[in-house]
Amino acid sequence: MSKRRELIIFGCVGILPVLLFYVTYIFGEWYPVTDGPPDEGSQILLWVPMLPFMLLLLLSIAGVVFVAAALVISLFIKRILCPRLQIFCALFAITFVVGWFATGEIYWMIRRATFERVAQRGEVIIQAIDTYHTQESKLPKSLNDLVPKYIDKIPGTVIRAYPNFEYEIPQTRDTYYTEPYKKHKALYELRVNCPSGGLNWDCFFYWPSQDYPDRIYGGVTEKIGKWVYVHE
Fold first, then answer.
1. Which of 6, 21, 63, 142 has CB atoms 3.0–4.6 Å from 89's, for a disulfide?
2. What is the mean pLDDT of residues 116-135?
3. Do 135 and 88 share a structural domain?
C-alpha cells in the first residue's frame, strides 16, 4: 500500500466515528418529535447523545492542541512529527465542528416542522378558551373547565416526547413571570415544555395577544405562526 493511500485511509478513520455519532444524534432528535403515542423512552433518547457529545468535544480539543504542538515541534526538529496522527486529529476536529453546525441546522428544521404541527393542533384549545372567556366573562382556571361544554376532551400534541398542552393564567404565577404577562397583555399562556437534553429547558407557548418579548424564560424567542419557541 502506498504511503499516500495509507494516509488517506488513516484520515478517513478519524472521520467515521464523528459521522456515526451525528447520524445517531439526528435520529435521537428526530424520533422523539415524530407523531405517536406518549413514549417515555423517547424522552430518554433526547438525553443519550450528551455523554458521547462531550467526549467527542474533549477529544477534538485535545486533537487540536496536539496538532498545534506537533507543528511547533516540527519547526525545531526539521521534520514532520507523527504525520498520520496529525491527519487523524485534524480531520476528527474539523468533522466535529462542521458536523456541529450542520446538525444544528437539521435539528432546528426538524423541530420547526414539529411545532408547526403542534400549533395547529392547539388551535382547537385556543378556540375553546376564547369561547369560554366570551360566554363566562372569565378565563377557565384549568383546561378541565372546558370539558365537556366547550370541548369534548382536551387533545394532546400527538408528539411522542411532549404529549401534553399546559395552561396557566397570570394569577397562578409569581411576580417574575406575571410582569411579562402584564407588559405584553397576555391573559393566559398555553404551553408545551420541550427540553431537548442536557441543560436545556426549551418551551413553546401561545399568548392571545401574540405580542412576545425577544427574551423570556431564560432564552431567546422565535415566532412560529401564532406561537413562539423559546431557545433556552
1. 63
2. 96
3. no
